[in-house]
Amino acid sequence: MSITIKRIYEPVGAKDGYRVLVDRLWPRGISKEEAHVDTWLKEVAPSTELRKWFHNGEGSFAEFKKKYLAELKQNPALQDLRSLYKEHKKLTLLYAAKDEEQNHAQILAELLGS
What we know:
With 114 residues, the chain is of the alpha/beta class. The chain has one domain. It has 5 helices and 4 strands. Strand 2, helix 1 (32-35) and strand 3 form a beta-alpha-beta unit.
């Protein structure tokens, strides 16, 4: 079983496996056909309030991670994502954020891998 994370704007790869978009909003500038998304699980993304808080520079990534993990404890969509992982064995979590090191897909991949 493996998890990959990838910006949705990157080309589709033969090794992507099952592609899950984990953003609450559809990414700008890419059509659904271009995206090749198997499932859009927007409910697993950070809440609108948390996303805006972080993107407005109001907190550090460590604070964002702590708050997001707290949200996920109450979020049934996390179990949906875990079920997809068990079923497909190979997931690519797709996100639109420009920061490839500090984003919620990284947190989700870490959770699924543990």
